[in-house]
Automatic annotation (TrEMBL):
ATP binds at A17, P18, S19, G20, A21, G22, K23, S24. It holds the Pfam family Guanylate_kin. NCBIfam families: guanyl_kin. GO terms for molecular function: ATP binding; GMP kinase activity. This is Guanylate kinase. Its EC number is 2.7.4.8.
Amino acid sequence: MTTTSAAADGNLFIVAAPSGAGKSSLIRALLERHNDGSMQVSVSCTTRAPRPGEIDGEHYHFLDVATFQRKIEANEFYEWAKVFDNYYGTSRKVIEDTLKRGIDVFLDIDWQGARQVREAYPQAQSIFIMPPSLAVLEQRLRSRGQDSDDVIRGRMAKAQAEMSHYHEFDYLLVNDDFNETLTNFEHIVLARRHRMALQQSRHATKLKDLLANDG
Ligand SMILES: Nc1nc2c(ncn2[C@@H]2O[C@H](COP(=O)(O)OP(=O)(O)O)[C@@H](O)[C@H]2O)c(=O)[nH]1
Ligand SMILES: Nc1ncnc2c1ncn2[C@@H]1O[C@H](COP(=O)(O)OP(=O)(O)O)[C@@H](O)[C@H]1O
């Protein structure tokens, strides 16, 4: 008789940071290092206007406010929040389907969304990215060259409020040297994967022993 154990679900990782601290760049670089289809970043829905070069369906699903609100009513979001006066949300179906296929999913979301995900899915691992200083944060927002002075001022004004939630997260990374932060980020992700794989194999061995002793 052969025993089959159900394939393990993928791992869910929440990544939050004040705007400009480097979370999108870190997730993108990690996915480039592991481009075997075992990891995906969730593409959020937003009502904010696309930045130059942003592609609908790739960077975000850009929606109008009425469509976003209809999706809230229809319970289509795993989590959603209002950030910088715009709505942002994660599609429930995509996340659930992707995890079921055994693929790890990264959510680039704010602290309000992180709270909702932790409640819905307590096994999610959460990582907070800090900039080395507020001056460096502002410099990064400016050098990204995608936001107006007004938008940058708004984001800097909200940075400390976002950072005040760092203690709600499982891990804290200070993104000073990019490659060093990327390596630490990768260690967190791989350690989680190994632990879950070990648990799964222990479970499978135990099941085999039980069945072998049966009768
Ligand atoms: N709750 C929630 N926050 C999101 C989502 N997508 C993006 N955000 C957050 O919204 C904030 C602004 O994102 P964005 O406009 O792309 O600016 P950026 O972080 O400066 O690149 C960031 O803190 C994101 O993490 C989402 O689906 N849900
Ligand atoms: N460790 C780092 N050192 C220098 N620049 C960085 C570092 N991490 C990210 N950046 C740059 O800072 C800017 C903001 O990064 P981004 O990933 O867009 O931030 P976020 O997604 O958190 O808003 C980008 O231009 C990015 O290339």
